[in-house]
Amino acid sequence: MLYICSIVSIYEMDALSTILEAISLKSVVYSKFPLAAPWGLDVVNDENSQFWRLVSGCCTVGSPDGSIIELAEGDLVFVPHGSAHWIADKSTSLRMPSPEFVKARRAGIPVFNSGGDVTTLIAGHFEFDYQPLHPFLKDLPPIIHIRQYVTENQLLLKQVTQLMLEELNNEKPGSSVMLKNLSEIMFINIIRAYLEQAAPDSGFLSALNDPRISKALKLMQDSPQNDWTLESLASEIGMSRSVFFNRFKKLVHETPLSYLTNWRIRQAQKLLMTDNSNISEIAASVGYQSESAFNRIFKSKTGQTPAVYRRSKIIE
């Protein structure tokens, strides 16, 4: 997994970086696709988030909400929730189901090579290990269209794409790791570019853009073991208790202490799978001095006691 801050001892992580670590952001770059018109793909619903980057040619995307997006060279579409959609040279082109396309490519069977104008795409997907979904992921729209290079973050996307193309065109030692890391950098720049382009005024992304709410998120995420209260959090970020509560709930769509509880339980899940500490020590490390209280809250969130959860993950 890509670590957002490479030297943690020197640079503190921001709220988004901590979240990306918690959800275990991973990525896969499928390939570079040269597709001769007419061509089209019906992309089936998938648990992963797909992306398509138009390198050259023309391309049309049928959004999950039914709208049609015309892409220009350099544009990118990101489907955060893996919703079914389609992509083609034209909206009228016949489309092949994506599983059939993948099967044909793996078998070495030529598809979409009729001799028409060629479109080149880079495609891949992002994976997140977080159940239930973090509000950051739930609040992303059905589709994100990042237009060609205008802002600094979009220029960074261009540079990342160029590096990906070099690795795809000239496979070298370590290419698979390079592509993985480049696509994870791409994900972060997609989010940054979306924030610049759409400037959402509500939802979790806007919370990350709000200096004081983002600071509150960072405080809870960095130190879940602290005995946080509404009053102490509000005091730390310089807001009144009521203003903080209302602002946080409006942006994050849950109360500060509800967010804290969910974050603590998620961190406990990771520790139960990766740390040999006993359950009382894990409970204390995420803010519960009472093991019985921790057991009760953990079961209410996951449906299992911590001990049963740990055993089930070892068996898996």
Outline the structure in words.
A hairpin with a 5-residue loop joins strand 4 and strand 5. The chain folds into 2 domains: 15-201, Jelly Rolls (Sandwich), CATH 2.60.120; 210-315, Orthogonal Bundle (Arc Repressor Mutant, subunit A). Strands 1-9-3-6-10 form a 5-stranded antiparallel sheet, with helices on one face. A 5-stranded mixed sheet has the order 5-4-7-2-8. It has helices spanning 15-22, 98-106, 135-138, 152-169, 175-198, 204-209, 211-222, 230-237, 241-252, 256-274, 279-285, 291-302, 306-315, and strands at residues 26-36, 40-43, 49-56, 59-62, 68-71, 76-79, 85-88, 96-97, 118-127, 144-146. Mean pLDDT is 86; it is low at 1-12. The chain has 13 helices and 10 strands. The two termini are 21 Å apart. Helix 1 crosses helix 7 (211-222), helix 4 packs antiparallel against helix 5 (175-198) and helix 7 (211-222) packs across helix 8 (230-237). The chain is an alpha+beta fold and 316 residues long. Helices cover 47% and strands 17% of the residues.
**Broad structural category:** alpha+beta
CATH topology of the largest domain: Jelly Rolls
Count of DSSP-assigned helices: 13
Shape designation: elongated
Total strands: 10
Please indicate the count of domains.
Answer: 2
Beta fraction of the residues? 15-25%
Largest sheet: 5 strands, antiparallel
Write a brief structural summary.
The protein is α+β, with helices and mostly antiparallel strands. It has helices at 15-22, 98-106, 135-138, 152-169, 175-198, 204-209, 211-222, 230-237, 241-252, 256-274, 279-285, 291-302, 306-315; strands at residues 26-36, 40-43, 49-56, 59-62, 68-71, 76-79, 85-88, 96-97, 118-127, 144-146.
